[in-house]
Design a protein that fits this description.
Layout: E1 2-7, H1 15-30, E2 33-37, H2 42-46, E3 49-52, H3 81-91, E4 96-101, H4 103-116, E5 120-124, H5 140-161, E6 164-169, H6 176-184, E7 189-191, H7 199-211, E8 217-222, H8 246-258, E9 262-266, H9 278-296, E10 302-307, E11 310-315, H10 316-320, H11 328-335
Parallel strand pairs: 1-2, 1-4, 4-5, 5-10, 6-8, 6-9, 7-8
Antiparallel strand pairs: 2-3, 10-11
Helix pairs in contact: 1-9, 5-6, 6-11, 7-8
The structure holds 6-O-phosphono-beta-D-fructofuranose.
Length: 339
């Protein structure tokens, strides 16, 4: 048995832990050979492969990023793209391909499975946690910890200067990271893409806080969040266009409206970099082992998932059909601390 693996879409902590688990389990348990395709779907498109061995994947569990590198390339945008992938699978004599990705990468895998009979198994990763059919994607917990630690640091400087600090975090369509990170970091208001908020509600909450003696406030805003009735904050949130800007804009509006000195901070790619948390290392490892088992059982067109703390597998349609947006019950919990 020979299997391939690729990592696609935005990188996230835990990708190397998955690669390590796939190689270790594939080789030791199933006597399988594993090859890595480089740079997401570009790898099979251009037949860029890298043999993976126990030695080359040793010591990877704590390493951020992906040794296979990644890209957002979509083979369906290219002439003969899908055919080139099928050819590359044949050339490398592969029985199956493990695709580690978020919604876009897994949607491509589904099309390749359905339209080109590619033997794929997916593993869900993304700091956005917006893939359906899994309670969590790996990478998310690390990003939440980074946001929470950043907010701890912002608290002390905000407090020292009597400032309002607006912290913009990633999340184009889903507010999981903003909400989890905001709750953990003690945010005084959180804005998420799922719910447009009136500027007045935010400034009132800040004023209320200040009126009861708190001279600083921390606001967390997801990059895809919008202000109610404010067209300028209706960012182009389609596809993978660059977002950003809402934090800065919101900070200016808050300062004008409240008179409190306000600054904006964009956490950006820091949220995706560095070592995975222990939780993400374990989840990535569990996913990697389960994906190898699916390939050897020839259960293709499926994604491994975490449900009620058990690893299961689900049809790719279920995972990619609709986006998993924020559970608004969680937002309600967060809002207990607004104002
Ligand atoms: O999909 C993960 C993610 O980090 C999003 O949260 C963010 O909006 C996007 O990727 C940024 O992508 P890029 O690094 O390509 O600009």
């Amino acid at each position: 048995m020979r299997m391939g693996i690729l990592t696609g879409g935005g990188d996230c902590p835990g990708l190397n832990a998955v690669i390590r688990a796939v190689v270790r389990h594939g080789m030791k348990e199933h006597n399988s050979e594993v090859v890595g395709f480089l740079e997401g779907w570009r790898g099979p498109l251009q037949n860029m492969v890298m043999p993976l061995t126990l030695k080359s994947t040793d010591g990877l569990i704590q390493r951020g990023g992906t040794i296979l590198r990644t890209s957002r390339i979509d083979p369906f945008d290219l002439d003969r793209g899908p055919d080139l992938i099928v050819e590359s699978m044949k050339k490398n004599n592969l029985n199956g391909l493990i695709v580690v990705g978020g919604r876009e990468t897994c949607s491509i895998a589904l099309r390749m499975f359905k339209e080109h009979k590619l033997n794929v198994v997916c593993i869900p990763k993304t700091i956005d946690n917006d893939l359906s059919a899994t309670d969590f994607t790996f990478g998310f917990d690390t990003a939440v910890n980074i946001v929470s630690e950043a907010l701890d640091r912002l608290h002390t400087t905000a407090e020292s200067h009597n400032r309002v600090l607006v912290c913009e975090v990633m999340g184009r369509h889903a507010g999981w990271l903003a909400c989890y990170g905001g709750i953990a970091g003690g945010a005084d208001f959180i804005l998420v893409p799922e719910k447009a908020i009136a500027l007045h509600d935010i400034t009132e909450a800040i004023k209320k806080r200040h009126a009861r003696g708190k001279d600083h406030s921390i606001i967390v805003v997801a990059e895809g969040a919008r202000l109610e009735g404010d067209n300028a904050s209706d960012n182009n949130v389609e596809g993978n266009h660059k977002l950003g800007g809402i934090g800065d804009r919101l900070a200016k509006l808050i300062e004008t409206e409240t008179g409190f000195e306000t600054r904006a901070i964009v956490l950006g790619h820091i949220q995706r970099g560095g070592s995975p948390t222990a939780y993400d290392r374990v989840l990535a490892t569990r996913f990697g082992v389960a994906a190898v088992d699916l390939v050897t059982e020839k259960k293709f067109g499926r994604m491994v998932a975490l449900q009620n703390n058990r690893i299961v597998d689900v049809p790719l349609e279920e995972a990619t059909g609709s986006m998993k947006t924020l559970d608004m019950e969680l937002y309600k919990v967060a809002s207990v601390f607004f104002g």
